[in-house]
Amino acid sequence: xxxxxxxxxxxxxxxxxxxxxxxxxxxxxxxxxxxxxxxxxxxxxxxxxxxxxxxxxxxxxxxxxxxxxxxxxxxxxxxxxxxxxxxxxxxxxxxxxxxxxxxxxxxxxxxxxxxxxxxxxxxxxxxxxxxxxxxxxxxxxxxxxxxxxxxxxxxxxxxxxxxxxxxxxxxxxxxxxxxxxxxxxxxxxxxxxxxxxxxxxxxxxxxxxxxxxxxxxxxxxxxxxxxxxxxxxxxxxxxxxxxxxxxxxxxxxxxxxxxxxxxxxxxxxxxxxxxxxxxxxxxxxxxxxxxxxxxxxxxxxxxxxxxxxxxxxxxxxxxxxxxxxxxxxxxxxxxxxxxxxxxxxxxxxxxxxxxxxxxxxxxxxxxxxxxxxxxxxxxxxxxxxxxxxxxxxxxxxxxxxxxxxxxxxxxxxxxxxxxxxxxxxxx
Length: 427
Prior knowledge:
Elements: E1 10-13, H1 17-28, E2 35-38, H2 49-53, H3 67-72, E3 75-78, E4 83-87, E5 92-95, E6 100-102, E7 105-108, E8 112-114, E9 127-128, H4 133-144, E10 149-152, H5 156-167, E11 172-176, H6 188-200, E12 204-207, E13 211-217, E14 220-226, E15 231-233, E16 236-239, E17 243-245, H7 248-252, E18 261-263, E19 274-276, E20 281-285, E21 290-292, H8 297-312, E22 323-328, E23 331-337, E24 344-350, E25 355-361, E26 367-373, H9 376-388, H10 394-398
Parallel strand pairs: 1-2, 1-7, 2-3, 7-19, 9-16, 10-11, 10-16, 11-12, 18-20
Antiparallel strand pairs: 4-5, 5-6, 8-17, 13-14, 14-15, 20-21, 22-23, 23-26, 24-25, 25-26
Helix pairs in contact: 1-8
């Protein structure tokens, strides 16, 4: 059969980390059919983490691959031409430019969109989310000009922006609705340590605060008013209050969605010819044993590998323990597993030295997550402990003088079946 036949066509919708990675993987694995990669932005795929971590640096723009890669590998990269419709019956997609493409496999990698702050003034000039290269360029120009920043949302992105802006001498205020920063994703212990670290470096953090209104003058942001009437003067507002999965295309095509496109452990949707990967998905994770939406580069890359295996008919790699990273000032943080407030923290190392770890254990001593700061060995060991459900000795774990290889108790624990798959494929 000719490689141009629709049976050999793969259409990837979305050219972020997930979609761009998949395109490269398929060609590396000798996929010989036609491949179309549809991008909503007018630029080739790029790395998004530097947008919040390194926007002030010269190398903040980092392409996933050179633009010549797509041409040299016969990948039809359609810039600024998002898919607008999926016809599941005909197995075709239509793009904004009016082009139609047939597919044997359609891969939805549409990502997520920043939540809009639902208050008056959110449309003022100088109010931005941080999801695209355009956003990062605006932020970069403002920070280099010495702007006063107000950051709404004390998640990892907000704290990364705060750290980078303070490194350039900007005045920074972080406004967090919850009673602590990182309330949804990190332990109280890590939140407290990071709050003290940022505060000591000049960032003002206001927790338990609600934004009532964004104040403007001549159409441009000039301040933030809180519900307690406090006003914070600023030249730029960065809104980092989470993201909404961009699953509208899937919903319109009647693909099963629930706060994201629902996929199984092989990235398959409710349609056998449609896969979904990246931030847009609610994925069945074998290690965790439940549906989760993981907004991270490692998750996007892992799902791209799963999709490539399905398309190529090759063995699917075992699931990884979920992991994440964040850079703030000189802190290199890596986290593995999903924090559970029912666990108890064991501190290894000393936060005052800038190198430590927090292992979060069940009452039986099984690690469910680990948060590490400048402690690469602890991260690697913690990730392994989580994956094998090793039972750990709390006292030995808390003692930096005890080697990590010696903190696991003898005796079998219940291992995680990382490659386990449910018998049913529709979820």
